[in-house]
Amino acid sequence: DIFTELSSLNVLYLDNNELSSLPEDIFAGLSNLRTLYLNNNELSSLPEDVFTGISNLRILYLYNNELSGLPEDIFAGLSDLDKLNLNSNSLTCLPRSLPLSVSVDIELPRCGNLLTLIPSSLTVAEGGSSSYTVALASKPTAAVTVTVSAGAGVTLDTDTDTDGNQNSLSFSTTNWNTPQTVDMSGEQDDDAIDDTVTLAHSASGGDYIYVTADLSVTVIDDDKAPALVFTPESPTVAEGGSSIYTVRLAGSPTAAVTVTVSAGADAGVTLDTDAATDGNQNTLSFSAANWSTPQTVTVSGEQDDDEVDDTATLSHSASGGDYGSVTGDLLVTVADDDKAPALVLTPESLTLAEGGSGSYTVALAGSPSAAVTVTITPGTGAGVTLDTDAATSGNQTSLNFSAANWNTPQTVDVSAEQDDDAVDDSVTLSHSASGGDYGSVTANL
Fold this sequence. Notes:
Blueprint (H helix, E strand, L loop, with lengths): L10 E3 L21 E3 L21 E3 L21 E3 L17 E2 L10 E4 L2 E5 L3 E8 L7 E7 L3 E4 L10 E4 L8 E7 L8 E10 L7 E9 L7 E4 L4 E3 L3 E8 L7 E7 L5 E4 L10 E4 L8 E7 L8 E10 L7 E9 L7 E4 L10 E8 L7 E7 L5 E4 L10 E4 L8 E7 L12 E6 L7 E3 L1
Parallel strand pairs: 1-2, 2-3, 3-4, 4-5, 7-14, 16-23
Antiparallel strand pairs: 6-8, 8-12, 9-11, 9-13, 10-12, 13-14, 15-17, 17-21, 18-20, 18-22, 19-21, 22-23, 24-25, 25-29, 26-28, 26-30, 27-29, 30-31
């Protein structure tokens, strides 16, 4: 209540004071305040109600602090605000509640106003075509135009019904979340190298001003020497479970190509190249039209009586056109499901910068007897935040495993918080499992 007797104050200078925090409602009572200087301090965060009671404020200086985020409604009560200086902070977006009429000295999008690109990356062959979609992540305040541009190597068209290649998409307050299609073609070149092209998306209109997004496109060269491309190059499958990998050709063939897949008699796996056909198939067919399209092979791991992981070599032999002598091997790891219950953390330790983030994965060592939940808890005063599900609002702290996905690593995102000292900190993340035969299993990272 230090300012309660200063209701007639018009200008308040609190700059250059090494302030690291402010109490809630600190400015309550300054009903006639017009200009507030909070610049050149060490503020890393602000309470949502810090500006309550100064509704007549017109100019606010917050530049040269350590702000990395602002509460959504922090400016909600500042109806007369005209000018906001936020330069030299670590902000990546501005609260959506900040009126567009306010003059801000930095060009940042409103928080939550994002472009949704599906898929988030794309592969197209030279001379081939593909497509992706664009939508807005939140309802805009007015009509929005998204302009798409690309470097050399691809051509774009946002409207195939209009002559020529168009490069813009129009969204309104009613169709903002309806995906719109961008068609893309890979251009030919004379080398034998895959190219990477970035598609830049820039929005304008309403509160989507300054919103941008990029999409990475790999243009697969069709002039490469004949070879088989496997993804991933070394898959893992659980005993009693199944996994997949894909096969494509490295370059355009001169004629139709058949790839035959085989595993040794004692390999410990079975293969199927066509799940829609009865029985286990073992061939894949490619042409000049689909050579760059990955085709799926399903691998099933067979049970055995030991507790040792096994490996199997899958042989691939091509025939047809200029692929007549092409072969390729792929090594598959068969993860044993008879191992004693344990948690597998990868990596086993993690290093983060303050204000930075990283991730690690968790999996079970063996197949559980029932569904398993792994709960993660940081130590007291840890200085980190965790999230086990980035697609769900808020920070989640648990992972769910079953007999079907026990060996599939699940990701935990970790963010390091800022503090005021110059000392490195060490934090222990505790993992506690429950369910089935994992009821007493723990692990630390």
